[in-house]
């Protein structure tokens, strides 16, 4: 056996080595490959050999290992045994390093997963250390009788969950989710945006922007696009400029934009200087639809009910009980003695307008206990609790919000009309709280001043018609998209509205509608994937119409919801959180994407924490 058989090669130099093998006739079976090493090394002393040539190998062997032929004669059994032993040692070393690398990579991947869970539950970065400590303590009990308990505990202790590590993990995962988002933005057929602004605990105005993407198969996906911190003023031009800078920086394909939905704030919908107006004035933006959030409009309609006094008194009573610690404890004790289903009054502010219904319902259910509590305490400043008319106004419950889509608005309007007729007939079957209070006051239903409440309902209906007139053009188009084979559809009018909404050719739209309604094969198809069945060649306008309609946001609910998440993430205990980390945490908390943990672990140098 020659001296060159005592050397092995790396995979990086494999092609060159194979050519050298042919020249020096080195046997591959006597070589050991190690991808971690980048040069040829002696299997005896691990010294590096500059060039994998026969002369270099023999020179190294004679110079450094000259006595080797004497101690282990060539072709002897002793020589073969020694070579086998050296190879075995090398394999053990390689296995050790590979195993350690594998463990470190597994620990890194696990740290990504745990970090994701931490931030998804809106917890602090430093909670990773607490989670690790809990893991170790739990393992001590769970694996007490396991033979490999020490190995399991060692693996848990190898988790990298320090505050700084969790922070880096979250930053990497957020970047991964952002890349997935931008891939979908590039691939989508069109998209819509929703914008809203709110102030965080450090008085920084945060503008949340969500995107709804529609793909070629007419499926949609909603995601957080970005959060823009406003350090100074929040005028329409300021928000627009920040939005414009984001578009230029990220190269957002605004030519795919279909619509923008905002709330009704002047900074958003101002006629001259609102964000929408500024976007329309900018040549970079295409013609797009814009809508005032349905939920906000419904809430504004509710304000027309002229029931402000009811909300003000109920809110003051709740605050007077909960504002002082002693008063709150006494009220809780009173509720426990009365064996009530609830142990606390809810609070309400105008900012939390979506919770009015829950607040009033809880107040109504605890109203007898509230009156008794004030009577025992000798507090008589809230005389409205004994005012029968005030209680009737409170209990009719018209401040509740129940709609978030256009179809629900129409259903709600029909329901309101039906309720108005019921009240005129003194039928209170749909007003259980009102009927209950009348019964407690010993009044008959016929004694109710129904005109007082029917007037409120009629005013509310009138306000609904006024505020939702923007959707009058969209409604017949949406109806057609749901029921494309309606025989009573006015094709001319429908085609004109579709063309006007989505900037299409009216005659082409009309031809496609007529062709579509006459297609017997399409009539037999399931509606779930109906619009995806239409070919781009035959129905280009119909597909664009379906995709654009699917992309529309009906409300800014996602923005409103994200502000609730933001309030938890950036609480008074984490008020120094940077705007960048706020966006990272918010994206990881609400995104539907899942980070590629394996790729993230492969992209960094894996080390255990031990």
From TrEMBL:
This is HAT C-terminal dimerisation domain-containing protein. GO terms for molecular function: protein dimerization activity. Residues 524-586 form the HAT C-terminal dimerisation domain.
């Amino acid at each position: 056996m020659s001296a060159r058989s005592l050397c092995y090669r790396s995979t990086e130099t494999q092609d060159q080595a194979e050519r050298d093998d042919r020249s020096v006739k080195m046997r591959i079976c006597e070589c050991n490959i190690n991808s971690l090493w980048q040069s040829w090394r002696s299997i005896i002393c691990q010294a590096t050999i500059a060039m994998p040539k026969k002369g270099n190998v023999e020179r190294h062997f004679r110079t450094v290992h000259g006595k080797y032929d004497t101690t282990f004669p060539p072709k002897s059994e002793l020589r073969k045994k020694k070579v086998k032993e050296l190879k075995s040692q090398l394999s053990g070393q390689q296995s050790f390093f590979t195993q350690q690398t594998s463990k470190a990579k597994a620990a890194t991947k696990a740290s990504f997963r745990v970090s994701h869970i931490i931030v998804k539950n809106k917890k602090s970065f430093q909670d990773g250390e607490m989670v690790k400590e809990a893991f170790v303590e739990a393992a001590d009990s769970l694996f007490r009788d396991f033979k490999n308990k020490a190995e399991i505990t060692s693996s848990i202790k190898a988790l990298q969950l320090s505050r700084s590590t969790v922070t880096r993990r979250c930053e990497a995962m957020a970047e991964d989710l952002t890349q997935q988002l931008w891939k979908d933005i590039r691939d989508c057929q069109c998209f819509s945006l929703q914008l809203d602004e709110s102030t965080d605990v450090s008085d920084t105005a945060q503008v949340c922007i969500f995107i709804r993407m529609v793909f070629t198969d007419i499926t949609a996906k909603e995601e957080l696009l970005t959060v823009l911190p406003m350090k100074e003023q929040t005028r329409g031009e300021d928000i627009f400029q920040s939005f414009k800078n984001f578009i230029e920086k990220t190269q957002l394909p605004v030519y795919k934009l279909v619509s923008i939905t905002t709330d009704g704030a002047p900074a958003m919908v101002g006629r001259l200087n609102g964000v929408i107006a500024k976007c329309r004035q900018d040549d970079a933006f295409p013609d797009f639809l814009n809508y005032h959030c349905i939920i906000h409009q419904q809430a504004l309609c509710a304000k027309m009910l002229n029931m402000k006094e009811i909300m003000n008194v109920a809110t003051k009573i709740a605050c007077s009980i909960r504002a002082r610690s002693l008063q709150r404890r006494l009220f809780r004790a009173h509720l426990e003695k009365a064996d009530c289903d609830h142990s606390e009054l809810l609070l309400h502010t105008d900012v939390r307008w979506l919770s009015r219904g829950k607040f009033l319902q809880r107040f109504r259910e605890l109203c007898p206990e509230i009156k008794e509590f004030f009577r025992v305490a000798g507090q008589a400043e809230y005389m409205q609790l004994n005012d029968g008319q005030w209680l009737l106004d409170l209990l009719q419950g018209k401040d509740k919000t129940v709609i978030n889509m256009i179809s629900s608005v129409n259903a709600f309007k029909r329901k309101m009309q039906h309720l108005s007729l019921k009240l005129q007939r003194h039928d209170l079957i749909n007003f259980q709280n009102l009927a209950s209070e009348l019964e407690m006051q010993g009044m008959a239903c016929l004694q109710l001043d129904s005109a007082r409440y029917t007037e409120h309902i009629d005013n509310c209906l009138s306000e609904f018609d006024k505020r939702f007139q923007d959707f009058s053009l969209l409604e017949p188009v949406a109806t057609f998209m749901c029921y494309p084979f309606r025989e009573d559809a006015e094709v001319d009018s429908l085609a004109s509205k579709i063309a006007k909404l989505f900037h299409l050719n009216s005659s082409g739209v009309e031809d496609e509608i007529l062709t579509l309604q006459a297609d017997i094969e399409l009539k037999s198809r399931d509606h779930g994937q109906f619009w995806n069945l239409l070919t781009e060649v035959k129905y280009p306008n119909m597909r664009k119409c379906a995709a654009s309609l699917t992309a529309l946001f009906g409300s800014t609910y996602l923005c409103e919801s994200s502000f609730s998440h933001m309030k938890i993430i950036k609480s008074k205990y984490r008020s120094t959180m940077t705007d960048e980390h706020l966006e990272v945490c918010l994206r990881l908390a609400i995104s539907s994407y899942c980070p590629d943990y394996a790729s993230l672990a492969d992209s960094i140098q894996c080390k255990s924490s031990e």
